[in-house]
Design goal:
- This protein has one helix and 36 strands.
- The protein is mainly beta and about 525 residues long.
- It folds into two domains: about 350 residues, TolB, C-terminal domain (Neuraminidase, 6 Propeller); about 100 residues, Immunoglobulins (Immunoglobulin-like), CATH 2.60.40.10.
- The strands form nine sheets. The protein has a five-stranded antiparallel β-sheet with strand order 3-21-20-19-18, with no helix packed on it. Strands 4-25-24-23-22 form a five-stranded mixed β-sheet, with no helix packed on it. Strands 5-28-27-26 form a four-stranded antiparallel β-sheet, with no helix packed on it.
- InterPro entries: 6-blade_b-propeller_TolB-like, Ig-like_fold, IPTL_CTERM, TEN_NHL.
- It comes from Comamonas serinivorans.
- It holds the Pfam family IPTL-CTERM.
Length: about 525
Amino acid sequence: MSSERVPALYWGEYSDSGCRSRGKGSCTMRFKGLHSSIKAMSALAVTALLAYPGVAQAQVITTVAGTGTPNGAAGNCGSGLATGVNLEGIGTRANAIDAAGNLYITQENVICKVDTSGVITTVAGNGTAGNSGDGGPATSASFMSITALALDSAGNLYIGSMAGGVRKVDTGGMVTAVSSLNGFVVFDIAFDSAGNLYASQTFDNKIIKMDIGGTVTAVAGTGSAGYSGDGGAATSAMLDYPFGLAFDSAGNLYVADVGNKVVRKIDSLGIISSVPGGAFTGDMGTSMNSSGIAFDSADNLYISNGSGHTVLKVTPDGVNTIVVGDGTSGYSGDGGLATQAQLNGVADVAFTSTGAMYVVDGFNGAVRLVSFSNLAVTASLPATATIGMPYSGTITITNLGAGPANSAATLAVTGLPDGVTLGACNIASLAVGDSVTCTVSGSPTAAGTSAVTATATDTADFDPSNNSASASVTVSSAPVRPTATPVPTLSQWGVALMTLLLAAGGWMSRRASGRRH
């Protein structure tokens, strides 16, 4: 799993097909093709300890890889369109996305790549279980029960497996072992913004860090299973089956502490705490792939809930909602709302920078795509207005997300001056990349300053931070017009008198002229 914020965050997962223990004792289970006696873990289930989450109107769900009919351990990724290939029901447990938008998917012993045109190919693994081939082409190497998948900022692929250690596939397709991590069995991998690698040692109840120089240190967990240490140093805290890892935008590390049914946060000072809204309870059931976690660009936390067949969203203030899955096991719903779809053993989640979410539908051998909207609101309103004079401005809503707006999306404007109103404005189902410009107009009827706020409401929007725009409008009284001074005019009698005077003046002038002659 890569924790780079661009283009996305990625998480690795795993699943089982045999363990049925509901307690914390050991049980024999088939784990990625191996029989192992390990501790059975509880799920991060849908029911929150504080409150049962609501259901959000998520966006349309589609399948981008797999058919929903899982294959056995096929040993390869097939070819052609990814939607025509039967992926494994056990091995499909993690995904990652590179900067070009190509999707990478784990299978039991191989890594598949789905390019942006939907074509699938094998990029690592020869299909046989093993741990050989370092120094050569990744497609000729053998892997055994892949557990984790991540991309660093340079586009190198990191792979964890049950064989122990982490292996790197560079951008040229060559595979090497990460020597500092030889012998470590890790179940998830994340990179911080500085390029340091973090990995969950699930069986050992620890989180380790390998810095860019190759030095490995423990960053969380004492090695003993338990639940303690909140408010203190993470290295002195007890974890129980730590699994999924993710970084938020501030660089804090989050850990799915699966056995304790809680998400833990480790801040930049190494202090550990439990995340508000990240405490869950539930029955593990028949699924073991319940702890992939991810952040979107608005720092909402998403948790894959394998046994609940859902994806849960936790906002920064701790509000829980179901955004994918109806909670029943099955494979259905493509083309409809994600909250009404059936999934089976959700193993992993990953976000792109545009807000599209990839969901590993593990036991169905599929990867599903859920696209969310992102409505950005801008306001262009003149800052001054006058009572009784025409006034108008515009509000523009643009969908910057990866999916259309919900059919119930609306725009509301508050604080408009008296006499000014919002005209017809329909943003329902606003398509990706499209904009709608709405007009506010009228003639103000009262003086004063108004704080105007325009807010788009869309339950499918993954980033509410840009859903509002504000402006201040000051209305002044109408100016007093000065009274005009009337210009004197000649009356009708005055005109007649003037005519007589002019005529008399002319007669007298002619008479005087005659006398001189």
